[in-house]
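Let us work through a complete example step by step.
Step 1: write down the sequence.
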Amino acid sequence: MVTDSMYVQDIQQEFQKSFAFLKIEFFKNSVKNENNTMRSSPISGKMLVGNVRHIHVDGSVDIDESRSVIELENDFLNSYGLLAQVFRKSGSMWIETTLTDHWSLQRQNEEGRQMS
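Step 2: predict the structure and record it as tokens.
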């Protein structure tokens, strides 16, 4: 459930309960830097969702393991105005899943398990 009164870390913790080798981060609106690439600032987990999102409706996001990363990220953006990025565990690091956004959450999580 996504509501204005919850904290960003509540969403992150619920997500990680289902996918131990993935994490989800939320970012402020992207802006182009001097190299003409998009840069975003992460949103603290201690922020209230209502203070950082642009669409203020309550609802839930389907995080079924068969869904792709890009579908999940698009749901957060289109339904709640939250810019989300999924990261996968790789050894002791977290890497963006940008190049594999079409993979299912289950496949991403399994890849993270194998790399950790």
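Step 3: interpret the result. The chain has one domain: 8-115.
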